[in-house]
Amino acid sequence: MGLPLWREVAFIAVICLSMFTTQLGLGQVLLLLPSIGRTFGISNPGDLSWLVAGYSLTVGTFILVSGRLGDIYGYKRMLCIGYAWFAVWTMISGLSIYDTKNGYVMFVFARVLSGIGPAITMPNGLAIFGAAYPDGMRKAMAFALFGACAPSGSIVGATFSALFDLVWWPWTFFSFAIVLVVLAVLVIVLVPVIPRTRAPPATWRELLQAVDLLGGVVGVTSLVLINFAWNQAVVVGWRQDRDYVYICLLLGMILLPVFFVIETKVAVEPLIPFSALSSDVGFVMACIACGWGCFGIWLFYLLQFYTNLRHGSPLQISAWFSPIPASGFAASITTGIILGKVRSSIVMVMSMTFFLVGVILIAVAPVDQTYWAQTFVCSLIIPWGMDMSFPAGTIIMSASLPKKHQGVAASLINTVVNYSVSLGLGFAGTVELQVDHGGLTEQDDLLRGYRGALYLGIGLAALGLAISLVFAFKQGRRESESKRKRRSASIKLPDK
User: Fold this and answer.
1) 173 and 93 in contact (C-beta within 8 Å)?
2) Are residues 64 and 263 in contact, defined by beta-carbon separation less than 8 angstroms?
3) Range from 150-154, 222-226, 434-438 carrying the lowest mean pLDDT
4) CA gap 219, 263 in Å, rounded
5) Which of 15, 154, 201, 258 could form a disulfide with 27 if both were Cys (CB 3.0 to 4.6 A apart)?
């Protein structure tokens, strides 16, 4: 890149903070749900869950469109807009406390719209890395550090929200909004301009073709409906009198193949260039979907385990989660080093193994066991799954698509990560509802339900491991064949 070392470090930090702030925005609400509920007079857990689900749903849904806008109008510009948008709606989330009549509705509305901010910053931040660095050690390390910010962001958000909750919870959002404004300014100052590989559309028709409006609307609608159905079913159940849940799920499933038809047969500039994607990308996306779906289940139900079964306070729970950022940072550095020396498929096998071992440890952990046994160990192991799979998948995706599609490449990985987390929780919640009434006491019922959901996480991780092993075998055989052909080509027949 030709930047001085201090400038490159600052540049990498500002980009990585797009992942950090995304997860901070999620983690800051998890431990505040009881306080927010008391403020607005809301006690139904299903209503409170949408304070988290609404944000995650928006983040996971709008990433694809945001990445395409970055390809068209420039990644730096979109990154700055994303931070600014995030700041405005985060501030409104805190200000909702002053609306005595419709404060809860205003808060939910602000949380949903604030999710568009990280949906813009994450893919465009990753796209800047993909376009700025050639394949090699520095690019691998940049992607690894980006992924390392995910667990640390959630823990920092939860910790500071617990501290602000001791005084006044809205300051959680006010302070975060100020930080986001500062980051928007730092993007302007520190991030170099990445030359655009295409001219912006000159007419409305060209713009609609460039953003693939039809495909975007159909794809986003499908994802929203499917995600809403599974997560709302956790609140109201799969009862016959809840027809709208089944209707939303059915419509979403119908629109999904319609989206694929539009992208492959109709769109002039498809939102997802399927023709440019290799089979390796398919294997990697399947692994990431299974692994991160497992991680979402692990994180949510470990939090429930700490809160409802071990009865930890918000600050104590934050302390119990504190090993995750340090372990994640170590995993990211290790991954950045080995990615250039070890096949990406082997890295994916290792990450799926860490996911599987980590979720098994919490699924079978006794309630009265000391923290330093299984729960501490699983908090050290799970981050290695996250911070090995994300950079490996991002590098494979970035290498598969040309420079002009780096926004789409980053968007696709982030969409899979966020959507699999949200959808995995919807599946797990349904399992929990079906199996949580077999214990002798209320605590037994909770434990039975939590373990049922965690067993689903085990199944997802095991499936991811199986897929990664097939991917590793396929990649290894292909490399062996390639070496054999090179050796054959290097052998020359003697002249007669």
Assistant:
1) yes
2) no
3) 434-438
4) 10
5) 154
Q: Which two tokens stand for residue 212?
A: 């693939």
Structural domain spans, the chain: 5-192+205-212+268-488, 213-267
| Token pair for 443 | 């605590």
Kindly report, residue by residue over 54-64, the tens digit of the pLDDT. Answer: 787 788 778 87
Q: How far apart are CA 138 and CA 9, in angstroms?
A: 12
The answer to whether residues 294 and 355 touch, using CB atoms and an 8 Å cutoff, is yes
Burial 311-350 (b: 16+ CB within 10 A, else e): ebebeebbebbbbbbebbbebbebbbebbeeebbbbbbbb
**Cα–Cα distances in Å, from 349 out to 139, 291, 296, 362, 389?**
21, 11, 19, 21, 9
Query: Token pair for residue 414?
Result: 């982030």
pLDDT tens column, 467-488? 999 988 888 888 788 777 777 7
| pLDDT interval class at 241 (50, 70, 90) | low
CATH 3.40.50.880 assigned to 5-192+205-212+268-488? no
Distances, alpha carbon 26 to alpha carbons 67, 186, 220, 325, in Å: 21, 23, 21, 15
Give the closest residue to 18 by CA, choosing from 118, 111, 115, 89: 118
Instruction: Please say whether the beta carbons of 456 and 295 come within 8 A.
Output: no
Q: Which two tokens stand for residue 402?
A: 């040309």
- Asked whether the beta carbons of 272 and 263 are under 8 A apart, the reply is yes
d(CA 456, CA 298): 10
Q: Which residue shows structure tokens 């994450």? A: 122
What does the pLDDT read at residue 232? 77
Terminal CA-CA length for the chain: 53
149: amino acid identity, one letter: C
